[in-house]
Amino acid sequence: MITRLLSYGAGEGIAKGLNIALIILLPLIISPENYGVVALAVALEQILLNVFLFAQSTAVLRNYDRFRRYGNTFFRSLELAHTRFSIILFVIGCLIMLALYGYISDLASLFLILCAAPFLARLQMLQTLQRVRDLVAGYLKYRLLYQVVKFFLVLCLAVIPSLEAVSYSLGTLSSAIFTLLLFRDWGVRENKVRENKRLSKKMFLFSVPLAAQMVMNSLYSVADRYVLLYMSNKVDVAIYTFSYSIGTTLLFIANIFVIVYLPKVYREKNGLEKSIRILDGMLIRLFVLMVIAGVIVNFIIYPHMLSYYEPIYARGERVLSIAVLAVILKTFYLYGLYKLTLFRTLESIPLISAVVLSFNLCANIILIPRFGLEGAAYATLLSEALGCTLILVRSSQVCRLKAVRACE
């Protein structure tokens, strides 16, 4: 069990590390204006991946044991239903792109991301199906091959001046298709296996609230880039994305920490009281780790890095400091989320996400004209503070109502 968790954690760490490294290395190769185009493509990728995936991977993780008895029919039903859904979404996306033609510059980069989205969602589903069957090697081959190929391909495309703006989008699309062609295996060897439409419908309906939650989260994480573009320009988007990406490397540390530590919290044999004590201990350790890492990134790593980049990126120094504070606040949000998960009361999470997303959009619109780049960062910091407050208040209410003894 521990070996599997460490393998998953190592795989996720390498994959996320390569993705972060790619975003940080690209400004060394391409112009700030084209890096702004890449930043918008990355933001759109996050949104479209969640839309096309429609929380099906989460649905599989939560329901695989329940539907295991269906065997290959389960996988075949997922494949066919997801393919139909992706085709419909892709057609809608193409119509939207066609309507925007002539109104948005650099539409080619965004269109390539739209083309990549169904393949990225399929790849994510394949990784999930490997996980539920405890096929660690299979999971890692999909996860790592795609990320390694993408990393080197995007960098190679970026050195070609005519492809700077589309380097990320084209590299993402090509890497996803290459990985799928090389390792195509849904666990169904025979096409004669029929779809169970009732099963497909159950999985789809289960995914609706989860998908809404994930799409809202992705919109929240990228809204600042698009509002900043609307109220400023692509160069400001580039500076903001560069600084904020360095600040959010702390989330990379948090994700690895949680992957390794969280299974201890959710062990059924613990009992609720012990699980909460373990969760409290995890929060303290994670908070201390994040503060130390934040100080190192803000005062040592970032100033040293700036000497290698164009001077214009130094304008994002304050953005980095604010981003570090926002990420540290995120640890308290995660604590509240995991606590609600322990009590199996997640119904309020979509509402909290909707409130925070709405607040974030309003804050960006108000603060960016007044503070510029820093305004977008302040909007995110205030939104994180609001999200933390709401989820901690809710988790405390649940504690008092459902587990008073366990929380004393």
TrEMBL record:
<protein>
    <recommendedName>
        <fullName>Polysaccharide biosynthesis protein C-terminal domain-containing protein</fullName>
    </recommendedName>
</protein>
<keyword id="KW-1003">Cell membrane</keyword>
<feature type="transmembrane region" description="Helical">
    <location>
        <begin position="12"/>
        <end position="30"/>
    </location>
</feature>
<dbReference type="GO" id="GO:0005886">
    <property type="term" value="C:plasma membrane"/>
</dbReference>
<feature type="transmembrane region" description="Helical">
    <location>
        <begin position="144"/>
        <end position="160"/>
    </location>
</feature>
<feature type="transmembrane region" description="Helical">
    <location>
        <begin position="283"/>
        <end position="306"/>
    </location>
</feature>
<keyword id="KW-1133">Transmembrane helix</keyword>
<feature type="transmembrane region" description="Helical">
    <location>
        <begin position="107"/>
        <end position="123"/>
    </location>
</feature>
<feature type="transmembrane region" description="Helical">
    <location>
        <begin position="82"/>
        <end position="101"/>
    </location>
</feature>
<feature type="transmembrane region" description="Helical">
    <location>
        <begin position="204"/>
        <end position="222"/>
    </location>
</feature>
<feature type="transmembrane region" description="Helical">
    <location>
        <begin position="242"/>
        <end position="262"/>
    </location>
</feature>
<dbReference type="InterPro" id="IPR050833">
    <property type="entry name" value="Poly_Biosynth_Transport"/>
</dbReference>
<feature type="transmembrane region" description="Helical">
    <location>
        <begin position="318"/>
        <end position="337"/>
    </location>
</feature>
<dbReference type="InterPro" id="IPR002797">
    <property type="entry name" value="Polysacc_synth"/>
</dbReference>
<feature type="transmembrane region" description="Helical">
    <location>
        <begin position="166"/>
        <end position="183"/>
    </location>
</feature>
<feature type="transmembrane region" description="Helical">
    <location>
        <begin position="36"/>
        <end position="61"/>
    </location>
</feature>
<feature type="transmembrane region" description="Helical">
    <location>
        <begin position="375"/>
        <end position="393"/>
    </location>
</feature>
<keyword id="KW-0472">Membrane</keyword>
<feature type="transmembrane region" description="Helical">
    <location>
        <begin position="349"/>
        <end position="369"/>
    </location>
</feature>
<dbReference type="Pfam" id="PF01943">
    <property type="entry name" value="Polysacc_synt"/>
</dbReference>
<keyword id="KW-0812">Transmembrane</keyword>
